């Protein structure tokens, strides 16, 4: 069937489609395949509706005017049922108007959405196992980074200052507390700098409340650690230039947080597509991906972080090998055309 003839509705993360989930997932696919879509309304009939996880599940779980695909990319089902934020999530979404109807048990709301969906998208095998209890048509589809990767690293030599880089949402900067002791130790032996590529301001709650400035968070995290911290506003045109000018990427994660530790290898693939070596926390996904790539750069303990970072600080050939291995791996297993074909298969599965 020609997908261009379908009436497709999309429930975006942001109505201007600027959020990463919009840019790197369905919207990118639709652009590449010349597929038209509109912002979905529950009152309208569609051939297919793609609902992101920030959509109003209290409405879309009962939608009966077309096929529904639920793009469910975070590991909310893995969060313990006594988690305070999890217990308040449903009430919070209702209070701020993100849900028309109150859903006190947000785990149940997500489960109901998965049961209603004709297909569910996720990004990891662990997520697929959780979701498969509620929907049998589950597809793993990765983010597409083509528009971001405009420059690839070729020079792996470092200057007197060794430059680390981190990219991500500002609300995740706090994860550097996981390796503050390691960075403090490295600073005592080497000249190091940290380059942070992120949004310079954000809303802490429900994407609309309590505006925060990223500089304030950076000061609290790093002022007593070291001086060489540089903050860059996220920009699609310049992002890869900043990242590839650095020597190594860092991806610290709280391994005791199910939502954080259940995230996919999205950020790692972004760095690898640019040929940038990365040291990461040993989440199940990162550990598995590093093993598949033949690298030992996933760290569980402070000692492992320290030893791994020191090794790559002093060994340019190891950095080059890691960067090039990662780039080859990303190109072989996460190419744009493979991901576009996965979207084709997904949509065909519900028609």
UniProtKB/TrEMBL annotation:
Domain of life from the UniProt record: Bacteria
Entry-linked SUPFAM superfamilies: UDP-Glycosyltransferase/glycogen phosphorylase
**Record's protein name:** Glycosyltransferase family 1 protein
